[in-house]
Amino acid sequence: MDMEEKLAKIGITGKLFKLYLAAVELGEAPVQEVAARAGLARTTAYDVLERLEHEELIRIVERSGRRFVVAEDPVGMLQRLELRKQVITDVMPQIRSLYNRAKGKPQIRFYEGEEGINTVLWDTLTCQSKTLCGILSMNELIETPGLGEMDVYISERVKRGITLKVLRSRDKDVGQIWPSGLEQLRELRYAPDGMTLGVTQYVYDDKVSIISSKRENYGLIIESEDFARLQSVMFETLWSISTPAAPAEPPRKPAGGRRRAEKV
């Protein structure tokens, strides 16, 4: 496959390719010279050059009343493609949601292994409503994805301004971690005694994400407006009969610091 065929795959075809190649070969030249090298009339070339300029592949500058074409460094093309890929990746959850809603069919995605579980966990940060409703099985989360991954995830959740309403069962808790608090945008409640929440689940927008135990080792994302609404109602019902956890205590000042303050 030659260069023309390869560039055609990213939309640089026909007259666009001829003018771009002429501009790159000349580096900097008057519009008329670039058009002639590409085998195009100057009037035709202007329209095509405007598109190349819009794509930031060239610049058109004026000097002494004449218009010159200046080719941009081709490395910039790769950087712009990477930027476009990142932008598309960022908006893909919203676009897929609109697509699936238009089709009217629920989407179920199944992921296996630790990497799959991480994929499901991080998908929750695509939450557009900025509120996650979570049922957390602490024993399982500490095993997979693990405390290290969860700490990074929590930091990013807070950075994105996403609040977590979370239910846990006391018999699944391990230590005093992830308490209620404004700093980490978390409100914690404990399910009634005797009710064991053994699987982690998040409800957000029109999605329900499930993270299994390490033994079963899978993650699941169900994208369905009706199912998400049902799970949200069930969560709020359980939330209403659960016990609010005491907020985390602020760190105490060192005793020495208090004595110095009193002395002053």
Automatic annotation (TrEMBL):
<dbReference type="InterPro" id="IPR021586">
    <property type="entry name" value="Tscrpt_reg_TrmB_C"/>
</dbReference>
<feature type="region of interest" description="Disordered">
    <location>
        <begin position="244"/>
        <end position="264"/>
    </location>
</feature>
<dbReference type="InterPro" id="IPR002831">
    <property type="entry name" value="Tscrpt_reg_TrmB_N"/>
</dbReference>
<dbReference type="InterPro" id="IPR036390">
    <property type="entry name" value="WH_DNA-bd_sf"/>
</dbReference>
<feature type="domain" description="Transcription regulator TrmB C-terminal">
    <location>
        <begin position="147"/>
        <end position="255"/>
    </location>
</feature>
<dbReference type="Pfam" id="PF01978">
    <property type="entry name" value="TrmB"/>
</dbReference>
<feature type="compositionally biased region" description="Basic residues">
    <location>
        <begin position="255"/>
        <end position="264"/>
    </location>
</feature>
<feature type="domain" description="Transcription regulator TrmB N-terminal">
    <location>
        <begin position="7"/>
        <end position="69"/>
    </location>
</feature>
<dbReference type="InterPro" id="IPR036388">
    <property type="entry name" value="WH-like_DNA-bd_sf"/>
</dbReference>
<protein>
    <submittedName>
        <fullName>Transcriptional regulator, TrmB</fullName>
    </submittedName>
</protein>
<dbReference type="Pfam" id="PF11495">
    <property type="entry name" value="Regulator_TrmB"/>
</dbReference>
<dbReference type="InterPro" id="IPR051797">
    <property type="entry name" value="TrmB-like"/>
</dbReference>
